[in-house]
């Protein structure tokens, strides 16, 4: 079965949107296989977002993601990686389509930081890497 890593980011958790985000994922028919509240440290986040290390927004991204607790979730289902990305909507919450998590619940706050409530792995390779990083105690991988 296919698995993906979802994060309810600090802004989503702080705003009390965890239940709403999980409701959308579960209502779609996907199954939760692991879930924890965690305040991520810089080392974990620098590893998680390693592909963005050279981008100008990297330090701000690490600050945003480490500022307060988040929720990490492993989700299972057929084509769940693509399916969750579709539920999330595009990166910029002002532009994300209505009907998506980011489009319905997110917006630009004028802080210069893109706060977009949720993360979902973007490929099979990313999902395997990210689940191992956030859930070293679980045997779940993207497909097994
Ligand atoms: P994730 O699921 O969090 O990986 O988002 P994504 O796949 O939609 O976007 P991407 O991987 O390109 O970027 C990762 C995260 O970096 C985004 O979710 C944003 O929080 C942040 N980010 C991306 N682009 C920008 C940008 O241009 N400016 C700022 N400030 N942040 C950005
Ligand atoms: Mg990404």
UniProtKB/TrEMBL annotation:
SUPFAM superfamilies: Nucleoside diphosphate kinase, NDK (SSF54919). GO terms for molecular function: ATP binding; metal ion binding; nucleoside diphosphate kinase activity. ATP binds at residues 9, 57, 85, 91, 102, 116. The active site is at 119 (pros-phosphohistidine intermediate). It catalyses: a 2'-deoxyribonucleoside 5'-diphosphate + ATP = a 2'-deoxyribonucleoside 5'-triphosphate + ADP; a ribonucleoside 5'-diphosphate + ATP = a ribonucleoside 5'-triphosphate + ADP. Its EC number is 2.7.4.6. The keyword tRNA-binding does not apply. GO terms for biological process: CTP biosynthetic process; GTP biosynthetic process; UTP biosynthetic process. Residues 1-142 form the Nucleoside diphosphate kinase-like domain. Its cofactor is Mg(2+). It comes from the Bacteria. It is found in: Cytoplasm. GO terms for cellular component: cytoplasm. Belongs to the NDK family. Homotetramer. HAMAP family: NDP_kinase. PANTHER family: NUCLEOSIDE DIPHOSPHATE KINASE. Major role in the synthesis of nucleoside triphosphates other than ATP. The ATP gamma phosphate is transferred to the NDP beta phosphate via a ping-pong mechanism, using a phosphorylated active-site intermediate. This is Nucleoside diphosphate kinase. It comes from Scrofimicrobium canadense. The gene is ndk.
């Amino acid at each position: 079965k296919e698995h993906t890593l979802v994060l309810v980011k600090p802004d989503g958790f702080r705003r009390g949107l965890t239940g709403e985000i999980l409701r959308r994922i579960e209502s779609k028919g996907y199954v939760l296989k692991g879930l924890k509240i965690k305040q991520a440290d810089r080392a974990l986040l620098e590893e998680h977002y390693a592909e963005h290390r050279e981008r100008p927004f990297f330090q701000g991204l690490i600050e945003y993601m480490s500022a307060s607790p988040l929720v990490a979730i492993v989700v299972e289902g057929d084509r769940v990686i693509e399916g969750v990305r579709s539920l999330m909507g595009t990166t910029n919450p002002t532009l994300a389509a209505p009907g998506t998590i980011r489009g319905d619940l997110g917006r630009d706050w004028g802080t210069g930081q893109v706060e977009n409530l949720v993360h979902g792995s973007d490929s099979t390779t990313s999902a395997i890497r990210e689940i191992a990083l956030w859930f070293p105690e679980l045997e779940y991988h993207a497909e097994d």
